[in-house]
Amino acid sequence: MLQEVVATRYVTPLREGGSLPGIVEADDLGTYVMKFIGAGQGRKTLVAEIICGRLGHRLGLRVPDLVLMQLDPVIGLSEPDEEVQDLIKASGGLNLGMDYLPGSLGFDPLAFEVGAAEAGRVVWFDALINNVDRSWRNPNMLVWHGQLWLIDHGATMIWHHNWRGAKVAAAKPYDASDHVLASFAPDIAAAAAELAPRVTEELLTEVVADVPDAWLADEPGFDGPDALRRTYVEVLLERAASIGGRITIGERTGDTPSKAPDWLTGGPRRKAVK
Ligand SMILES: Nc1ncnc2c1ncn2[C@@H]1O[C@H](COP(=O)(O)OP(=O)(O)OP(=O)(O)O)[C@@H](O)[C@H]1O
Ligand SMILES: [Mg+2]
Q1: In this predicted structure, what is the pLDDT of residue 258?
Q2: Alpha carbons 156 and 142: distance in angstroms, whole number
Q3: How many Cβ atoms are within 10 Å of 15's Cβ, its own excluded?
Q4: Segment Disordered: which positions (predicted)?
């Protein structure tokens, strides 16, 4: 179970994020990066943050701790930015919080060396969850106390946006040519040998249990949240067994826009859903 806290103060927006995450303090005296349920990207990005964030953590990768955050929109009243105001108003109730890493720096491949073993683990993990958003354009990793931390797993598991085609989508290979760690000679074979056997049905079942029912309810074609949870488990379990052999690293693409859809990544900002 994820810990649940209550947001007590909206501190400031994080201007870099496409979904306009904010820094928020909570009643446990913690400081969190809050990902809003009312953001245009929708609740599935939060579901992906939980499943992939917790899975990464359980596999020994560094991912900031996650909490569920109760938000009373009244705490945003003094925020001057209208876009932020709208987002807070649209996000009353349960939201996602991620432990804020103070003083962390955005990962820069020219300034920080990553070993082949660690690069392999991150690339293999991103292939498993089909992360299209850890590229040299947008690394979505932080360096904190001299170590690499993984953030932003909202644009993963593309299959959960179209469950009817999920099995086919999940069977697809993973092109890591543009992955920000592609140039660090990732040892993918070693990572697959180490991590694939650890992605068990039991582990995945524990991970998906952390997603609140409310964010899994009313999914067309599913008889309730538990049926949907089981499908997440099935797809990830199947993909874990074989994805290691289907990761390709070729020439990195030129300075063209990301292939990831705008609404999933840092493209033009979408207005909050009212
Ligand atoms: N836990 C954290 N601690 C410190 N800074 C963070 C943390 N999480 C995010 N940030 C900062 O906020 C920025 C935006 O966060 P994140 O990438 O998760 O948001 P997003 O809206 O999903 O972004 P994107 O534009 O990549 O889709 C990050 O690039 C980083 O600078
Ligand atoms: Mg990001």
Answers
A1: 55
A2: 18
A3: 9
A4: 248-274
Residue whose C-alpha is closest to residue 149's, from 65, 211, 207 = 65
Residue 145 confidence (pLDDT) above 70: yes
**pLDDT value of residue 257:** 55
The alpha carbon of 218 and the centre of ligand 1 are apart by a number of angstroms equal to 29
The residue type at 115: G
Tell me the domain boundaries of the chain. 4-99, 108-147+158-248
Tell how far the Cα of 146 is from the centroid of ligand 2, in angstroms: 20
Q: Looking at the CA of residue 265, tell me the nearest atom of ligand 1.
A: 27
Q: Indicate which residue's Cα is closest to atom 19 of ligand 1.
A: 17
pLDDT of residue 272: 39
3-state class (DSSP) for residue 92:
coil
SS3 content of the chain, % helix, strand, coil (to 5): 35, 20, 45
- Angstrom distance (rounded) from CA 163 to CA 160: 5
Q: Are 123 and 59 in contact (CB under 8 A)?
A: no
The pocket around ligand 1, CB under 6 angstroms, is made up of 14, 16-19, 21, 33, 64, 98-101, 104, 106, 133, 138, 140, 142, 151-152, 154, 265-266
| pTM for the full predicted model | 0.92
